[in-house]
Every structure is written in structure tokens, then in C-alpha cells.
Design brief:
single chain, mainly alpha, two-stranded antiparallel ribbon, 2 helices, 2 strands, 66% helix, rod-shaped, membrane, cell membrane
Length: 114
């Protein structure tokens, strides 16, 4: 939302500036020369830098997506390891139910009075 509050007034000012400056000027770049209005030149420069900014954001986004993909794969691997360790722990601390062996029969001992 804050981005829109900054972008919309800037774009409106750019459009008003372009509409108000229709005077043609002569421009040169090395051996090339051309005539264009200041407003059109302003819009062309703004569009160029907008595209440059979008391209740089796209490259940063690609790097971020790669990192996110690797992190998600690592999370899946770690969750599988946790599940395996929990299964092993359950088998170790809760062995299968085996009936306890019957106590050995004690030999009959006669208790003599004293």
C-alpha cells in the first residue's frame, strides 16, 4: 500500500510534466541526432529505468526462489529423518508385548516351628 502511495503521485507528476513540455529539442548521441519533445524523452527514460529495475528484481527473485526450493527440500529430508528416528525410538522404548515368563516353581519347603 505504501508503494502505491509513492508510485501513483510520481506517475501523475511524470504524465503532467510530459503533457506540459511538448517543445522539440535536438539531441545527439555520438554521431546520431534526432528531435524529440522533452515530455517524450522523459517518458522514454522513465520506461527504460522501470524496465531496468524490473529486471534487477527478477534476478533477485530467481535467487530467492532457488534458496527457497533448497530450503524446502532440506525441510522434507529433515522431516523424514525425524519420522524415522521417532519410529526407532518407539521400537526401543516400547518393545512388542511379550508375555512375561512364568515364575519358576519354588520347591516346597516345610517351615518347622521353633
Amino acid at each position: 500500500m505504501l508503494r502505491l502511495l509513492i508510485t501513483i503521485p510520481f506517475l501523475l507528476a511524470l504524465i503532467v510534466f510530459s503533457a506540459g513540455n511538448q517543445d522539440s529539442i535536438q539531441m545527439w548521441f555520438l554521431d546520431w541526432g534526432w528531435k524529440s519533445s522533452v515530455g517524450v524523452l522523459t517518458l522514454i527514460v522513465a520506461a527504460f529505468f522501470f524496465a531496468l529495475g524490473a529486471l534487477s528484481l527478477w534476478f533477485a527473485e530467481l535467487r530467492q526462489r532457488g534458496r527457497a526450493r533448497r530450503a524446502e527440500q532440506q525441510i522434507r529430508t529433515l522431516e523424514e529423518q525425524i519420522a524415522e528416528l521417532r519410529r526407532q525410538q518407539a521400537e526401543t522404548f516400547n518393545p512388542p508385548a511379550v508375555p512375561p515368563p512364568a515364575p519358576p516353581a519354588a520347591p516346597y519347603r516345610e517351615v518347622l516351628p521353633r
